[in-house]
Amino acid sequence: MSAQTSAEASAQPLLEVSEAVVSYRVKGKGRFVAVRGVDLVVRPGEIVGIVGESGCGKSSLARALVGINGLAGGSIRFLGENVTPLPIRRRPGKLVPLQMVFQDPYASLNPRRRIVRQLEEVWNAAARARGADRSAEARTRAVADVLERVGLDPVLKDRYPHALSGGQRQRIAIAKALLAEPRVIVADEPISALDASSQKHVGELLRRLVDELQIGMVIISHDLAVVATIADRTAVMRAGKFVEQGETEQIWTAPRDPYTLQLLSAVPDLVGREG
Fold it and tell me: pTM score, two decimals?
């Protein structure tokens, strides 16, 4: 985990969440409140981890952060603009730099199209939204550059998703997000579906990208070990609320809430870990 300077800590927020509420209508049971008035700030060059048991509201919040879920209350602002529910067809240009990486990389890829075509499609849409050069030369260069950045052999671009490993597919999903030139990436359980070796490498990749590009990142995970390793700050979620939030080192070495202690008891080796 990188050490933040005072300047980084005071940087202008990229993503600001204030009293966010997410609720759903449940047939025959009225409304279920999944997220209950949470606050969150994400700044350049930092990873914010959100941890908690299954069903606590983590994924509902993640989807609200990028506009997939609408809010029942509160606000989410990205680069000073309100994040509004996404339309069915095209993502608004102002939200293109707010990207999401999902848990299952295979589900986010078209099994019938070669990887290169899917990457080019994302690049074309993002370049159109930015009003950038959309020449074939620029497109080819962008795809080659992003594959190198995520650590993939260029020959893989001509394969179909089923011919890649889980770790390779997740790197492609990350590459798709990077082609949009993101300022913030929300990653919902980005490594939980991978084997142990791929988890380590993808986690290290995410940390490196945030440091190199000075973007912001929110990582949703039930795996405390992952968050403890790469996140700068951590929010602990229970029943739709944050019960504790602060610097990751403080959360893991001097937790204040009994629920955080309960979570840590399952992974005692995290306490006293090296930064």
Answer: 0.90
Closest CA to 182 of 76, 92, 59, 100: 100
* pLDDT tens profile 160-208: 999 999 999 999 999 999 999 999 999 999 988 888 888 889 999 999 9
Alpha helices in the chain (DSSP H): 6-9, 58-65, 115-130, 136-149, 166-179, 196-213, 224-230, 248-253, 258-264
Tokens found for residue 28: 């025959």
| Strand arrangement of the beta sheet that strand 233-238 belongs to | 98-101, 184-188, 216-221, 47-51, 233-238, 241-247
Q: Which domains does the chain have, with CATH numbers?
A: 1-90+182-275 (3.40.50.300), 107-180 (no CATH)
DSSP conformational letter for 1: -
Q: pLDDT per residue over 98-111, tens digit each? A: 999 998 888 889 99
